[in-house]
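Colleagues,

For the teaching module next term, I've prepared a clean inverse folding example: a structure given as tokens, and then the sequence designed for it. I'd like students to try predicting residues themselves before seeing the answer, so please don't circulate the second half yet.
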């Protein structure tokens, strides 16, 4: 069977605190590690999605409502549902984050918040070469269930 969970793929978390949240795969561990003997991956996801904005809102209010609360987490493959979407968000710098150290994890989440918010404010890419436009739109919408 081929590997279908790859870096940049949008997944939905099925179990745990972040159940129903969308995330992007940062790094995969197919054979597991010493502390986790099962196949898992490091994901960066959205805990609090951006809120709806209208034309009549001020720039300050739009910026406030466009904020994203991210999370970084190791998740077992069993608790993930891959989607057909992939995104062009650069999350490779988070592959070597030490999640055991609280200060480093918080610092990484702050960087991730900045990256996610900037990419959301940038909007979907325009033109024929914009392959991941639908993926970005899907990633930033709250899952309705």
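(Answer key — instructors only)
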């Amino acid at each position: 069977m081929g590997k279908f969970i790859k870096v940049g793929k949008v997944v939905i978390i099925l179990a745990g605190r972040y159940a129903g949240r969308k995330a992007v795969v940062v790094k995969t561990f197919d054979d597991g590690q010493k502390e986790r003997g099962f196949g898992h991956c490091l994901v960066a996801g959205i805990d609090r999605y951006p809120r709806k904005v209208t034309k009549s809102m001020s720039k300050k209010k739009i910026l406030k409502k466009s904020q994203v609360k991210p999370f970084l987490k190791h998740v077992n493959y069993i608790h993930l549902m891959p989607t057909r979407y992939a995104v062009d968000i650069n999350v490779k710098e988070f592959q070597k984050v030490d999640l055991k150290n609280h200060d480093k994890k918080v610092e990484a989440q702050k960087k991730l918040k900045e990256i996610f918010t900037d990419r959301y404010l940038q909007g979907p890419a325009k033109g024929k070469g914009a392959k991941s436009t639908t993926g970005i739109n899907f990633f930033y919408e709250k899952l309705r269930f």
